[in-house]
Amino acid sequence: MSRIRPFAAVLFAGYAVCVLLLLWDAVDGLILPWLPGEIRLPAFLGAPAFGVFILLWALSSPRSWARWRVAVPALLLGFLLLWLAPGPLFDLGISRFVQRPDLNRFAERVHAYGRITSLWDDDGTIWSLNGTRVARTRAELDSLRANGYNEDAMLLADVLARDGIDPAVNEDFLRTLRRFHFLHLSLHGDYVLFARTRESGLVYAGPGAPPLVRGGSVPGTGVEIFGARMGRWSRYGCCAPRPTIGPDTPVDSSAGDTAR
C-alpha cells in the first residue's frame, strides 16, 4: 500500500492541476494572463487522461472502498467545475475587464479621433485599414496585386495620407489593439466594436450614444447585443462587421519585409 500512495498522489495532483488550468483558460485572458497554447493542449488532454487513470487505480482494488470514497468525489468535483464554472468565470472576467481604465481610455480615443474606422490585425500584421488592404513595402504591394485577389491594395503610407491619419496614432492604436488581444476594431457612428473572435466581441457606446439593449443591434452593423449592459460596454454576438478586404483574403506572405 505504501508504494501505491505516491502514485495515487501524482494522479490526483495531475488531475487537479489540469482542472485548474482549464478554469484559468475559461477566463480567456480577461483578468488573468493568457494560458499559453503549449500548456492549454496538455491540460485539455490531461484532465480526462488523469481521470481514467484514477478510475483504473480505484478498480485495481475493487474491495478497497477507501479508494472509491476518494476517487468518485474528486472526479465529480472536477467534472462539475468544468461543466458549471467556465460561463460564470468568463462573465466575471468580462465585467472586470471593461472596468480597466486603460481600456476605457483607448475606446474613448478611438471614438474621439474618428479617422480610423476599421483596423484589422492578424498575428502582428496589418491586414486592412479603413477597408483597404495595406502593404508596408513596395515588394509586398506588388505581390498582393500580382496574386489577383488584392488589386485595390495600397501602401500603408498612402492610406494614412488619403484618410488624414497620423502614423503615430495608427501605430499606437495597433499596439494597443494587440495588447488587449483584440482581432480588430471598427467605428460605427458613436459605437466602437472591438472583436475578440470572428463572431463576438465588445461594444463601447460613446458619450451621448443611445443605450444598447439586450436583443437589439448596433446601428449599421446587424450584430446582436446580448448580456447585461456594463456601463458604456455591451457584448455582441455573431457576426462582426467585416471590411471589404480582410484576413480571409489569400496573401503571398513570402514577399517583402513587413517588420515594423
Structure, explained:
- The chain is α+β, with helices and mostly antiparallel strands.
- It has 2 domains: 4-89; 98-236, no CATH class.
- The chain has helices at residues 4-26, 37-59, 65-84, 86-97, 101-113, 138-146, 156-163, 167-179, and strands at residues 118-122, 125-129, 132-135, 154-155, 184-188, 191-195, 201-205, 225-230, 233-236.
- It has a 9-stranded mixed β-sheet.
- Strand 3, helix 6 (138-146) and strand 4 (154-155) form a beta-alpha-beta unit.
- Helix 1 (4-26) runs antiparallel to helix 2 (37-59), helix 1 (4-26) packs parallel to helix 3 and helix 2 runs antiparallel to helix 3 (65-84).
Sheet with most strands? 9 strands, mixed
Q: Order of strands across the widest beta sheet?
A: 4-3-2-1-5-6-7-9-8
Number of domains: 2
Return Rg in Å: 24 Å
Q: Which geometry do the CA atoms define? A: elongated
Unreliable residue runs: 243-260
